[in-house]
Amino acid sequence: MGLGVVGGGVADALLQNPSPVSERVGRAVNLRRVLVRDTSRSRDVEVPPGLLTTDAGEILDDPEIDIVVEVMGGSDPAADYFRRALESGKHLVTANKEVMAKNGVDLLELAQANGVTLRFEASVGGGIPIVGCLMNELAANDIYHIRSIINGTTNFILTRMALQKAPFAEALAEAKGLGYAESDPTNDVEGIDAAYKLTVLATLAYGRRFRPEHVYRQGISALEPQDFRYAEEFGFAIKSLAIADIQDGEVQLRVYPALVPAENMLGNVNGVYNAVEVHGSLTGRVLFHGMGAGRGPTTSAVLGDLVATARLMSRETSLAGPRHFKEQAAVRSIGSVFTRYYIRLIVADQAGVLAQIARALGDEGISIASVLQKDTDLESQSAEIVIMTHPAQESFVQRALLSIGNLEPVRRIGNMLRIEE
Amino acid sequence: MGLGVVGGGVADALLQNPSPVSERVGRAVNLRRVLVRDTSRSRDVEVPPGLLTTDAGEILDDPEIDIVVEVMGGSDPAADYFRRALESGKHLVTANKEVMAKNGVDLLELAQANGVTLRFEASVGGGIPIVGCLMNELAANDIYHIRSIINGTTNFILTRMALQKAPFAEALAEAKGLGYAESDPTNDVEGIDAAYKLTVLATLAYGRRFRPEHVYRQGISALEPQDFRYAEEFGFAIKSLAIADIQDGEVQLRVYPALVPAENMLGNVNGVYNAVEVHGSLTGRVLFHGMGAGRGPTTSAVLGDLVATARLMSRETSLAGPRHFKEQAAVRSIGSVFTRYYIRLIVADQAGVLAQIARALGDEGISIASVLQKDTDLESQSAEIVIMTHPAQESFVQRALLSIGNLEPVRRIGNMLRIEE
Ligand SMILES: NC(=O)c1ccc[n+]([C@@H]2O[C@H](COP(=O)([O-])OP(=O)(O)OC[C@H]3O[C@@H](n4cnc5c(N)ncnc54)[C@H](OP(=O)(O)O)[C@@H]3O)[C@@H](O)[C@H]2O)c1
Ligand SMILES: NC(=O)c1ccc[n+]([C@@H]2O[C@H](COP(=O)([O-])OP(=O)(O)OC[C@H]3O[C@@H](n4cnc5c(N)ncnc54)[C@H](OP(=O)(O)O)[C@@H]3O)[C@@H](O)[C@H]2O)c1
């Protein structure tokens, strides 16, 4: 299977050897060409020079290329490349929210008319698989609403403003310094990027055409530190939400900073994380939370689409999982677990017990992080000791517990629980 | 397309008119037979008597049935029905975690050998689309770990024990009373159900065969109220987690009650909710949160699989979304939004200002829920007033803000933000 890539962003993942894509598809998927603006520019990703081109035709007109991956961004010339690719019978995988928001339905129909697929998981939510889920797993639901945090830059700035009560300009500067905001941050802070993504989600959720202009937008630049102080006093966080809902068959689309109850899951989405809450007629509320952008999550979404496309071409439809399940897995015993432990003991209320217990733990190399001695029961002359250990291997803890259970003043081991942090 | 259903659970959803499945597939999907134990039993779902049967052959041997949906439960005779259905070239959709945990890989291979699909989204996580996501959207990732809360009964009991410091027996009785626990709760409280589900997830995540016996299990019946008290003191919640992780190519599978930091998302999954956290090599951590069981979520998952299967049969693969996007959506303006509002005003620090503002709001029928007067600035003689309104329609709020902006003592409208609860 031949592959052409428009834009250099995910080329490294496609050049890996062994190729994770070929492995998952069960058939070789070969990268044939990568379109860039400047072949001589130095790149962090080592692309063999023979693969680079600045001529789109070398991808769009190459009959050996079955699938085009677009990670170039912008609507021009991307939209035009899309049409040419689909019309010449090439499957398309894209990360382009702008083109999908502006021309998504037309392109999907064009793909269908040409008997090819168009996938765009990476266009919304990065590592959060919301596009595929709305199209497939949640397809039987009527969607009552989508409430989402789908711009990581904005969410990073708001999180900074909330934590440090910093002015907008300062939080924005910090975001730029860390590479989370572009030099011209308009698309992010004015909600344009989120409006593109919301348009894509609403189109899938409601099966109708929407355009970015349908989205009411309010940016975050007018927020001031005291808004965060007051919101907090009332028990709220401030988050830029992208919302789609439907009432009497009419849809409302909006992107704005809103107060969200602090104990609400959306109120706890911080930093560059994204989250999408879908309220479906059958599922009730389902929340997806993960990294919304960045190379890894975008690559995950693009390669996931690529694997799905290639599997479909190979008719690997029934498994749709790893092609061959290996015979027998190597499974580790519980004794190999390495974590911290909570141990509750019921002991005789007498001096020196704790020392004996600590020695039994120490003999197995387990050190104690903290101890509580509690609830002395006068009648039975017993007390409870609660121990939190430092990380240790479970097999040693099990052995220590055996010794502890045999200590004379230990009446009973109340509970041993692992700590998962 | 003909459909046979084994077990009565989702028949109602398949009998709806207009049929949401047919609508989403773009082609009639007709329910031909429903297999039950007792055709004469009264059911809350009205199934036309002609459709009911107690003879499995009427489904498995009917050449007009292309897809079999199984929601009967248990491994016997379900596993046998699966084999017969797949061998006679019927696609299969199932909610059966036990069969998938015990024979999943064999059945998937049997499906592939017979050129049909086997889908099982409903077997894990109910309304949470974790099965499909592991197979498709996350397919390009190496999975470092899965950490999940996948038994709603157990999580309900633990939530009760945590909130009320109730003994296990009492919380279990409450769960039974509400229909969340069966009369014999062993499968849930001893982690057997979770072990089945974890086996399914691990098989997909690692592409290897696992069996339920590979899962280390510890139930929740030994937990005592003081464990919750102590955990809370240390800043932890207690949750029954199902965990799969991999180290040096070896997998560890376990189900046990563990201490989870209270501020962690998994620590805040309460009641019958489920959650699955997947740590992928590309995506980082992705969290899914939703209802793990119950009729709605199970139906959502089963119908989602059914739509996917039927679309594939109809080669509706390129859109994989609503078949035809309707021309133009009806879109409501922002003025139609109905919610509560946060309004911050900068006003002259003089008597009677609040009364004027309240009147302007009252004139538009907007009532005030609470007011803060803050931060008097001595130099500029100005003060800040923060108002939280009761729910109101945005168009009225916008109009009130125009009037308020024109009030003489109002220097500036600091911000107006919506409250999303
Ligand atoms: N990075 C992320 O976090 C992320 C997340 C989600 C979605 N996306 C989407 O991915 C796309 C690209 O993002 P990015 O961050 O990878 O952008 P980028 O760093 O600017 O990379 C753009 C790539 O496309 C090439 N390119 C741009 N315009 C071109 C043209 N007219 N002709 C030929 N090649 C052209 C560039 O070539 P040169 O190398 O020669 O400059 C470069 O390789 C966008 O759609 C974006 O929305 C990115
Ligand atoms: N309900 C949920 O929340 C949920 C969630 C996830 C997964 N699931 C899965 O869905 C399956 C069923 O759950 P459920 O709660 O719907 O169970 P249920 O209420 O016990 O229903 C079982 C259905 O199957 C029929 N049936 C059972 N044994 C049969 C046999 N030997 N021959 C013919 N028909 C038989 C029953 O017929 P009668 O009507 O005549 O009794 C009934 O219609 C299980 O795999 C379960 O794990 C359920």
Automatic annotation (TrEMBL), chains A, B:
Residues in ACT domain copies: 342-415
InterPro entries documented for this protein: ACT-like_dom_sf (IPR045865), ACT_dom (IPR002912), Asp/hSer_DH_NAD-bd (IPR005106), HDH (IPR016204), HDH_cat (IPR001342), HDH_CS (IPR019811), NAD(P)-bd_dom_sf (IPR036291)
Q: What is its EC number?
A: 1.1.1.3
Q: List, in alphabetical order, the GO biological process terms annotated in this UniProt record.
A: methionine biosynthetic process; threonine biosynthetic process
Q: Which reaction does it catalyse?
A: L-homoserine + NADP(+) = L-aspartate 4-semialdehyde + NADPH + H(+)
Q: In which pathway does it act?
A: Amino-acid biosynthesis; L-methionine biosynthesis via de novo pathway; L-homoserine from L-aspartate: step 3/3; Amino-acid biosynthesis; L-threonine biosynthesis; L-threonine from L-aspartate: step 3/5
| Single GO MF descriptor | NADP binding
Answer whether the UniProt record assigns the keyword Oxidoreductase to this protein: yes
List keywords of the entry alphabetically.
Amino-acid biosynthesis, Methionine biosynthesis, NADP, Oxidoreductase, Threonine biosynthesis
Q: Which Pfam families match?
A: ACT (PF01842), Homoserine_dh (PF00742), NAD_binding_3 (PF03447)
Question: Which family is this sequence assigned to?
Answer: Belongs to the homoserine dehydrogenase family.
Name used for this protein in its record: Homoserine dehydrogenase
Origin species, per record, is: Geodia barretti
